[in-house]
Write a structure and sequence with these properties.
InterPro entries: LysR-type_TF_proteobact-type (IPR058163), LysR_HTH_N (IPR000847), LysR_subst-bd (IPR005119), WH-like_DNA-bd_sf (IPR036388), WH_DNA-bd_sf (IPR036390). The chain is α/β, with parallel strands linked by helices. It has ten helices and 14 strands. Helix 1 packs across helix 2.
Length: 304
Amino acid sequence: MLDRITGMRVFARAASAGSLSAAARHLGMSPAMATKHVDALESRLGVKLFHRSTRRLTLTEAGGQYLEACQRILPEIDEIEASVASQRVEASGLLRMNVPLSFGTRYIAPLIPDFSRRHPAVKVELGLTDSRIDLLDGGWDLAVRIGWLEDSPLQARRLADCPLLICAAPRYLDERGVPRSVADLAQHNCLGYSLSSLASGTLWAFGRNGDVRVAVSGDLIANNGEALLAAAIGGQGIVYQPQFIVAPALRSGELVALELDHPCVGLGGIHVVYPPDRRPPAKVRVMIDYLVEAIGERQPWTRE
């Protein structure tokens, strides 16, 4: 099926040049193809657009009306295409980015002012949630994912490792003692993260591959790491949370990292994911590059 827009371009060029061969040369196609495009237009419209002779084309009355419409519509199409194409070259437009709540609040939101100064034509919509969202159905341009990536058509770039650390406040350890093994956790108040299969309210995983599983219990389960962090700092119990959440409290001495007989498990990494596209829009590319620089290279939670 011949492209209708190309047919309109051939028709408008032929009308101004007075011949299909001239229109074909200008548009880089054969005279036979140009003729097919005009024939297809006339067939679709059910009218003749040209009076044709061996020497020159002249517009019919219907052709004159159609030419006026083409001269109005084609520049608008060119403008729209140029605007869309420019977004692949020059970063602009609305960028919708979805990130986990704690990570986004601590490490993404503080980066937005500098990003906006670098790319003033990009407007950022920041969605904060610990629930896994569907990037494509939700209309998000990119997302930050923490943990092992599932098989999906999404593209991904790794930002950083994401180890879990087991910690407690000095006050809690003074009152309840210091666990030395994963088995000792059965005697402690373990604060669980309800959205994790590795550090839930009933089971914690240890070992390089997470193959050492121990039953735990505690008087608080939450679906947000900041809530668990606050409870741990207050001396309520032991937490098993990502390094990026507990690192500041470890540096300040509000929490103490515990060393058990099995190492803490890793979460698989921190990634930025985005829809499959051979060449993503410039607004997506510049944000990904910025996150790689600001998060991947600097890992701000590891700095003093």
